Amino acid sequence: MAAAKPKPGWLRSIIEAKKAAAAALSDAEKAAQAEAQKERRERVGARRAAALARLRRIVTLYDDGHTLREIAKAVGRSPSTLLKFAGRRGVSLSSSTSTVHRAFLLSREQEDALRQLAADYGKGAHEALDELLKLGLDEDAALARRILHVKRRAAA
Predict the structure, then answer these.
(1) For helices 68-75 and 27-63, what crossing angle results, to 10°?
(2) Which domain holds residue 74?
(3) More confident residue, 105 or 48
(4) Which helix (H) or strand (E) is 56 found in, with range?
(5) CA–CA separation, 45 vs 152, rounded Å?
(6) Under a CB-based contact definition with an 8 Å cutoff, are residues 65 and 58 in contact?
(7) Do 79 and 30 have their domain in common?
(8) What angle do CA 117, 133, 56 make, to 5 degrees?
(9) Contact 94, 71 (CB under 8 A)
(10) What would the pLDDT profile of 79-97 be if each residue is shown by its tens digit?
(11) How many domains is the chain partitioned into structurally?
(12) pLDDT tier at 156 (50, 70, 90 boundaries)?
């Protein structure tokens, strides 16, 4: 393990000044500081939990087939705000009515197999995956249904 890089003098003086200021606080002030830190942690935790709940609701509505405008109206945000909010959290949403973004996990073995297929195919991994999905989902997913032995359910 590498040795820790020494802190510059200006940073050491700031740290020492903070330590000295903390040591000069009375017990009541220290208790008030600890309480303020605890309240701040709780506020931050509550804000994070609310953001996670909002993201779950957005993704659930999106997966249920609602448009971005419908979702924005349901959660009280604008469509562009939803795109940014979800994007910062690693979720791709599409405002297009003709295309949809989906994210899914691949194991390392599957990723390696996809990259090898793409190399053999002479295209990038994303292009090879796109072609696979088009093939499997073409004609109402007839090929995928046959391979997976899935029968079409009657419309409700």
Answers:
(1) 150
(2) 15-88
(3) 48
(4) helix 27-63
(5) 45
(6) no
(7) yes
(8) 115
(9) no
(10) 999 988 888 887 778 777 6
(11) 2
(12) low
Max Cα separation, the chain? 76
* Cβ-based neighbours of 92, under 8 Å, separated by 6 or more: 86, 101, 102, 103
Cα 6 to Cα 62: distance, rounded to the nearest angstrom: 50
* Cα-to-chain-centroid distance, residue 42: 22
Q: Please give the structure tokens belonging to residue 24.
A: 């000069």
- Rounded to the nearest 5 degrees, what angle is found at the Cα of 69, between the Cα atoms of 137 and 66? 40
Residues 6+ positions from 86 with CB-CB distance below 8 Å: 55, 58, 59, 92, 93
Claim: this prediction has a pTM higher than 0.90: no
Specify whether 53 is located in the same domain as 115: no
State how far the Cα of 63 lies from the Cα of 93, in Å rounded to an integer: 10
Question: pLDDT tens for residues 34-47?
Answer: 999 999 999 999 99
The answer to whether residue 102 sits within a structural domain is no
DSSP collapsed to 3 states, 78-127: CHHHHHHHHHHCCCCCCCCCCCCCCCCCCCHHHHHHHHHHHHHHCCCHHH
